[in-house]
Amino acid sequence: MASRHLSRSIVMQSLYEWDFYGKKENSLQAITERNIRDFGPGLEDVKFVYELIEGIVKHLKEIDNIIEKAAPEWPISQIPLIDRNVLRIGLYELLYSNKEEVPPKVAINEAIELAKNFSGQTSGKFVNGVLGTVFKQLENK
């Protein structure tokens, strides 16, 4: 598994656990450190994991608002935890990351792959639909 893909998997698992337990303040750091130890021994780019985590948490309200606008029939609380956190990763990379490092189509594809690997049968399509909607809006600006 490529280093950045593994990093995104660790970020998703960390955000999932943090979200599951009510987003307790100061717990995400310990969760992330444990997941890096458990799932990413020898991971070369640990810095990337922390950049994603910190960026997502910093922009969480904005990202969640965008999810709700792009999927109005799905209130954020009704989106399955895995899908919700995969969308957070994808939207963060789509909106806030360096486009030369992570082109928009790569951000979308990576999120779809996470959804397919960790969530239900239709999750890849759902994630693709939400991220595709946001991407089209960005292109039209």
Automatic annotation (TrEMBL):
Keywords: RNA-binding, Transcription, Transcription antitermination, Transcription regulation. Involved in transcription antitermination. Required for transcription of ribosomal RNA (rRNA) genes. Binds specifically to the boxA antiterminator sequence of the ribosomal RNA (rrn) operons. InterPro entries: NusB-like_sf, NusB_fam, NusB_RsmB_TIM44. Residues 7-134 form the NusB/RsmB/TIM44 domain. GO terms for molecular function: RNA binding. It comes from Candidatus Staskawiczbacteria bacterium RIFCSPHIGHO2_01_FULL_39_25. GO terms for biological process: DNA-templated transcription termination; transcription antitermination. This is Transcription antitermination protein NusB. It comes from the Bacteria. One of its GO terms (cellular component) is cytosol. HAMAP family: NusB. Belongs to the NusB family. Transmembrane segments: none annotated.
